[in-house]
């Protein structure tokens, strides 16, 4: 559940980052071009995914700790996306491998 919430936070912030006019953007994938052409729909989708991630945190923890963990996770992922995206370090395979390993560790320890 935590890995899925983390994935939603990452995807939603990544899409919201690509709607920014000040961000340094690269168009490696076709969905990044679509995001840039449809900013209003993307902002709505990204905001809904952030809300869904927060609701998943609420299902896995109490109100106070879920809110704290969500904002810590949001700050961490957002700072990493802002720093690493212009360097073109984030790619599709790396994200899939990272979240797959995270999911396996989560299932192993719970």
List the helices and strands and how they pair.
Elements: H1 2-18, H2 30-37, H3 39-60, H4 63-84, H5 92-109
Helix pairs in contact: 1-3, 1-4, 1-5, 3-4
Description of the molecule:
The chain has 110 residues and is an all-alpha fold. It contains 5 helices and no strands.
Q: Which stretches are low in confidence, meaning pLDDT under 50 for 5 or more residues running?
A: none
Using the CA coordinates, give the radius of gyration: 14 Å
Listing every helix as H and every strand as E from the N terminus to the C terminus, the arrangement reads HHHHH
Number of helices: 5
Tell me the number of strands: 0
N-to-C span: 11 Å
Helix percentage: over 70%
Shape: globular
Could you tell me the strand content as a percent range?
Answer: under 5%
Task: Name the average pLDDT.
Answer: 87
Q: Biggest sheet: strands, sense, closure?
A: none
């Amino acid at each position: 559940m935590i890995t899925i919430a983390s994935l939603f936070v990452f995807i939603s912030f990544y899409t919201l980052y690509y709607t920014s006019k000040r961000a340094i953007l690269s168009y490696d994938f076709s969905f990044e071009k679509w995001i840039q052409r449809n900013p209003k729909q993307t902002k709505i989708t990204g905001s809904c995914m952030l809300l869904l991630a927060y609701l998943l945190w609420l299902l896995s923890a109490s109100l106070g700790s879920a809110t704290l963990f969500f904002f810590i996770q949001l700050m961490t992922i957002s700072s990493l996306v802002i720093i690493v995206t212009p360097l073109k370090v984030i790619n599709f395979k790396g994200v899939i491998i990272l979240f797959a390993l995270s999911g396996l560790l989560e299932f192993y320890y719970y």
